[in-house]
Write a structure and sequence with these properties.
By secondary structure, the chain is mainly beta. Helices cover 5% and strands 45% of the residues. The protein folds into 2 domains: 2-20 and 114-164, no CATH class; 26-97, Lipoprotein localisation LolA/LolB/LppX (outer membrane lipoprotein receptor (LolB), chain A), CATH 2.50.20.10. Strand 1 and strand 2 (11-17) form a beta hairpin.
């Protein structure tokens, strides 16, 4: 889900990654994703009656015959959401199963509004500065293994940002 709102100075982009286990928003194409993450499509599989893609990811330093230190995903072939993730290591396998209560449910505009039960004071945003034309806020909920919030500005001058990882 991406929500963008117009501000008085420049464009403000708010990006919230709700379920992106592989951090796919970092890549321009499927091929770039596969190459960068060292992914392998291991065919199709049926899990609880659902047709899935089996995807294996391994460190780029892993040997071809080494099945340790890899992650195998079962990705629902219809929704492209993860159903299972097995983390395979020398000491064993850790399994994560995913369940979804709703998929692609529209969120009401009120979710993005400030609370009304306490007074808010609007502050003037600092100027973007020369060479910047866009403000951004990126929040990731941890579904890809990282919980992070980054904010900043971009433009012809480049990117200036801060945040929490």
């Amino acid at each position: 889900m991406v929500k963008t709102v117009q501000a008085t100075r420049g464009e403000v982009g708010i990006n919230v990654v709700l379920c992106d286990p592989l951090g796919l928003d970092r890549f321009d194409s499927a091929k770039a994703t596969i190459d960068a993450l060292n992914l392998e499509h291991r065919g199709q599989h049926t899990h609880d009656g659902i047709r899935c893609h089996r995807i294996r990811g391994r460190p780029t330093t892993a040997k071809p015959d080494d099945s340790n230190d890899s992650i195998e995903w079962l990705i629902n072939a219809e929704t492209l959401l993860p159903l299972r993730c097995d983390v395979l290591g020398k000491s064993g396998t850790i399994r994560h199963d995913f369940q979804y209560e709703s998929i692609d449910e529209s969120l009401p505009e009120s979710v993005f509004q400030a609370p009304v039960d306490r007074p808010l004071k609007r502050i003037q945003l600092a100027p973007l500065g020369e060479g910047y034309d866009t403000r951004f806020l990126n929040a990731c909920d941890g579904s890809n293994g990282r919980i992070t919030v980054r904010w900043g500005k971009t433009g012809p001058k480049g990117r200036a940002s801060g945040g929490f990882n």
